[in-house]
């Protein structure tokens, strides 16, 4: 069985962080993709505090049961500094993405995509 995956794609991600800073109090659109193998995706969630709390993202293009689903999330940073953003997906069977990291071989990679965001004053 192919593990469920999700990732951040926009704004541009450079390694483990977003390439450009976010502006305090200015809404930014986060976008990405999620894949659930032949099970499809029922939900995508975003955490802006390293997994302490989660909010549901909008699935903007559901895709099919064998294609990536596209998601979007409106984030308004509320404090200056560094934030750890995390994305996770739930497949159409209701199974949450595996959070623990695992190498791709032999059973498929697992783990959550974590990206650091730098928030600056306007």
Give the SSE string: EEEEEEEEEEE
Please mark out the parts with pLDDT under 50 across 5 or more consecutive residues, or reply none.
none
Largest sheet: 5 strands, mixed
Average per-residue pLDDT, rounded, comes to 94
- Cα(first) to Cα(last) distance is 46 Å
| Subunit organisation of the chains | single chain
CATH architecture: Sandwich
Radius of gyration, in Å, reads 14 Å
Structural class from helices and strands?
A: mainly beta
CATH topology title? Immunoglobulin-like
**Strand order in the sheet with the most strands:** 4-11-10-6-7
Number of strand segments: 11
User: Helical amount among residues, as a percent range?
Assistant: under 10%
DSSP helical segment count: 0
SSE map:
Layout (H helix, E strand, L loop, with lengths): L4 E6 L2 E2 L2 E2 L3 E2 L4 E8 L5 E7 L7 E2 L1 E4 L7 E7 L5 E11 L21 E8 L2
Parallel strand pairs: 4-11
Antiparallel strand pairs: 1-5, 2-3, 5-9, 6-7, 6-10, 8-9, 10-11
List keywords for this structure.
Immunoglobulin-like; four-stranded antiparallel sheet; 122 residues; single chain; mainly beta; five-stranded mixed sheet
Describe the structure.
The structure is a single chain. The chain has one domain (about 5-120): Immunoglobulin-like. The chain has strands at about 5-10, 15, 15-20, 20-25, 30-35, 40-45, 55, 60, 70-75, 80-90, 115-120. With about 120 residues, it is mainly beta.
